[in-house]
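Lab manual, section 2.4: Encoding a predicted structure.

Procedure: take the sequence of the chain (727 residues), apply the prediction step described in section 2.3, and record the output as structure tokens. A sample record is shown.
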Amino acid sequence: MLDSLLDQLARQRGIGDAYHNYRGELLHISRETKTAILAAMGCATSDAEAIQRELHELETGRLRSLLPPVAVVHPHRNNVTLAVPADSLSREIAWHIATECGTEVSGRVRAGELPEHERREVDGRWLTRRDLLLPGSLPHGYHTLHVALDGGASETCALVVAPLPCHEPRVLHDGGRLWGVAVQLYTLRSEQNWGIGDFADLAAVVRACAEQGAAFVGLNPLHALFPGNPWQFSPYSPSTRHCLNVLYIAIERVAEFGHCAEAQAIVNAAGFQAELARLRATPCVDYPGVAQVKLRILKLLHAHFRRDQSAQTSARAARFHAYRAERGESLRLHALHDAIDERMRAVDGHRYWGWPMWPEELHDPTHPGVQALEQAHADLVGFHAWLQWLADEQLGEAQALGRKLGMPIGLYGDYAVGVNPSGSETWSDQALYRKGAGVGAPPDALALKGQDWGIPPQDPNVLVAEQYRPFRNLIAANMRHFGALRLDHVMALFRQWWVPAGLGSTEGGYVHYPLDDLMSVLALESERHGCLVVGEDLGTVPTEMREAMAERAVYSYRVVLFEKHDNGRFRQPGEYPRRSIATVTTHDLPTLRGYWTASDIELRRCLTLYPNDEICELVRQERIHDRRALLDALAEQGVAVGGDAEDAGGFSEELADAIHIFLARTASALVVLQAEDLAGMVEPVNVPGTSDEHANWQRKMCTDLAEVFARERIQLLLRRVSAARHG
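Recorded output:
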């Protein structure tokens, strides 16, 4: 009985019973895993009575509330489910919708005339669930639905009215095929930056790519990290996805820098210039060093901003205040978090790393202790909000430049699947994030030991209770300055692999999310921001996710190195789906040179990422086969590779160019070239399954990207890519 009740509660909370692994084998979720995930969700499962109480609470909550917390409608689903007592079916229901633009739509209907799809007895009373059909002409947006049962309950809920597909640029509707270049912003070298690629470097890349005919520049996640703890630098484990990484601010492009003599004198001093030269020369980004020099000057500039009352600065101050008002609570809480974090680290940086280690009275943003600190240190909170404004301003300028230069997309951003458990996003909404588990992935061909990314999952039940506002606000913040947005691990909209604390990544289980509702919110925000959506769907992708992406015009990911038939033959360009973005490799994979020379296999062997030597040898043999198969595919396209490319040591620039021409010929509406492959680099950006073992998210480009674009060979290659895209 206990197992049966546990399974029932697990299903009610979205936990799957079983799943198919990457080999197609059906694996069942263990009782231990289900119990641990339910515990992470805050459910009591100590005995049968406790589980029955949990089930009863869920059941009564679902059937006794006239309306759900949020209802989502779109062209394929125009009904809202109501819970109506069976003894009230003769009564009339009055409903009206208050739209966000101030108009109202209303109607009346007899409860018994509504289509019924469930009837249950709860505590001796029969309750039914019935569908209220809404007009199909409702404007898209976030509205409020009010429903009243004559002589009975009266409730309101959030109503989301969404389009079906996400936005697609007109050029793609008209059959155009676009291309772009992907860069990891922090890796960029230049004579002007301060040891890390910045928004000025981004503007230069945008200009260089636009001159070659590119439609977009792809980026790593630019999410806010931890200014006070620069050792935490993974873009996929940010403090929050609502805000930006302030280390990307180009200091000398900040307006105040041109008027602040003190800051200029410090920067121009020989010692400071020597430190900048050192930071530029390092093979990996020295995050602590970069943070030290940048934040020192930024604090001086902020002080100047607050002191200067000239007409020009007053206008800037007005824009800053308008920005703070527009960004609202998410910006306030992040700036407050960073201000508290800075104060705590000044006391004891080792003891107070992250908000879970702060004094108890600072754990809750609504606690009087937090409010007192916010008032006492308003200038420091304002400083961190000001940094966000500068970053937002410079990123917006880069996007505006791309559009001015004729790029139909401009910037193509990246939205991480989760956040660091000690960051401001989890601090700001602790009910939503479950600290007793981490998001990861079951074993697959790339990570045979499975993965635990160390990011806390959102509880889907809380997400519904909060009317999807957290997801809506995150998507809106991330589409703010992008013409396209990549959703990392897009399968997370359907299910996430929860790894309970204390269990291994192979012992996790899938928790399901309201896919159709989340896709609807995504489509609405995409429409509002004119932003194309790309879903990173590499790995094990369930059928439900594939179908939802196709229905919602979410572009899929196609990596040339993975695009093979069951017989090992690589797909030809014409076999790629139209609504997709194709690439040779990604930031989680080896560079093209690394792949061809199999240096990635040796690297993973040295990092003990293979379960045993036999698996490593199998991967080596498969790589030999794949190189030959890829050469066959190139030959079928009539693309010359030159040299002895079949040999592992036979990598050449001609081979790289041939593979990129093959890529450019694909039927995919979008293709993206990696900056590392244009430069001919070997070392990967990231090795999944590692943290400190490899210099992930640190390695810089081997040369200034401007120098790469100036190469005659690269210019010829990009002209050929552009011609193939328009051919």
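Check your result against the sample. The chain has a mean pLDDT of 94.
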